[in-house]
């Protein structure tokens, strides 16, 4: 597919609605991108405000964070819950808290404690900045899902990814164009927190089950919010083929953002994609 100023069309065209500026403080951009290379890895990420939020003037509620520590990559994707009015701030706070925690962590990560700290950061923010001392108010105002990956080198061109999540943000191993989901369906509804049935921080599940997956030289680890995961489905449709081909090697950051701004059908949520490639060392 050619790269021009018109975003990719997936499926049937939807109605054209003018974009409205986000009605929020502090300032929050419509689209953010990032990417770099470190020893043994390349990374790319983009987060784009969805057509629904552009039409209604709601800020982008997704966020992501990337960092490197001791030769490993920290990757975080968060999705503010739609009916929590300050969830865009919650998503950003969760990303920053997770990165700060993993930058200081030892070789063995206490994943339950990491999620507990990320959730507690929302409670502390609500009390300190908003004057809301009831933890349930933090949940009502700032709730966010999260998926976290710590990707460690495991030999030339190989890696091992350790992942954990709360909520319905997703992860895949992209191998040979095929999308292999790394998590099962979200937790049973009895553990869900908010009226729309989404499990989210600041509350943490009683049991946290990290996922460990090996990555070969041609594999790609992909994290995303449900604004991408839902239209992707099993990855066999047009969107899966578009991203499966484009992510076979690290694309230009602007191209990733352009693809993520796809239109069509009823897919109008914010969408965020973060990808990590293990890269063999340059021959000496």
Key descriptive features of the protein:
7 helices; alpha+beta; six-stranded antiparallel beta sheet; 284 residues
Helix content: 25-40%
Query: Which consecutive residue ranges, at least 5 long each, have pLDDT under 50?
Result: 187-196
Instruction: Give the number of helices.
Output: 7
Classify the oligomer: single chain
Mean pLDDT: 90
Give the tally of β-strands. 11
**Alpha-carbon distance between the two ends:** 36 Å
Tell me the Rg in angstroms.
Answer: 18 Å
**Per DSSP, what share of the residues sits in E-state strands of 2 or more residues?**
25-35%
SSE series: EEHEEHHHEEEEEEHHHE
SSE topology sketch:
Blueprint: E1 31-38, E2 41-48, H1 51-56, E3 62-69, E4 72-80, H2 87-104, H3 111-130, H4 135-142, E5 144-153, E6 159-166, E7 170-175, E8 178-181, E9 211-215, E10 220-224, H5 226-232, H6 238-246, H7 253-260, E11 271-278
Antiparallel strand pairs: 1-2, 2-11, 3-4, 4-5, 5-6, 6-9, 7-8, 7-10, 10-11
Helix pairs in contact: 2-3, 3-4
What does this structure look like?
The protein has 284 residues and is an alpha+beta fold. Helices cover 27% and strands 28% of the residues. It has seven helices and eleven strands.
Please provide a brief summary of the model:
This protein is α+β, with helices and mostly antiparallel strands and 284 residues long. The chain contains 7 helices and 11 strands. Helix content is 27%, strand content 28%.
């Amino acid at each position: 597919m050619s790269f021009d100023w018109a975003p990719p069309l997936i499926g049937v065209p939807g109605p054209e609605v003018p974009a409205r500026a986000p009605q929020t403080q502090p300032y929050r951009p419509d689209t953010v991108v990032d990417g770099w290379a470190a020893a043994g890895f390349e990374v790319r990420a983009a987060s784009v405000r969805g057509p629904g939020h552009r039409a209604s003037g709601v800020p982008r509620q997704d966020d992501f964070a990337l960092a490197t520590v001791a030769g490993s990559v920290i990757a975080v994707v968060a999705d503010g819950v739609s009916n929590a009015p300050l969830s865009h701030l919650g998503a950003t706070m969760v990303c920053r808290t997770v990165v700060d925690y993993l930058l200081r962590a030892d070789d063995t990560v206490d994943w339950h404690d990491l999620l507990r700290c990320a959730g507690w950061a929302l409670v502390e923010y609500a009390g300190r900045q908003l004057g809301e001392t009831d933890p349930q108010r933090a949940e009502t105002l700032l709730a966010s899902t999260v998926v976290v990956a710590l990707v460690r080198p495991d030999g030339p061109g190989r890696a091992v990814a350790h992942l954990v999540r709360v909520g319905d943000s997703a992860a895949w191993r992209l191998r040979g164009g095929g999308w292999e989901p790394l998590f099962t369906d979200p937790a049973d509804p009895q553990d869900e927190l908010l009226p729309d049935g989404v499990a989210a921080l600041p509350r943490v599940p009683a049991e946290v089950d990290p996922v460990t997956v090996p990555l070969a030289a041609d594999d790609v680890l992909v994290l995303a919010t449900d604004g991408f995961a839902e239209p992707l489905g099993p990855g066999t449709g047009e969107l899966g083929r578009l991203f499966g081909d484009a992510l076979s090697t690290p694309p230009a950051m602007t191209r990733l953002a352009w693809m993520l701004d796809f239109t069509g059908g009823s897919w109008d949520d914010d969408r965020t994609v973060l990808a990590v490639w293990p890269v063999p060392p340059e021959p000496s």
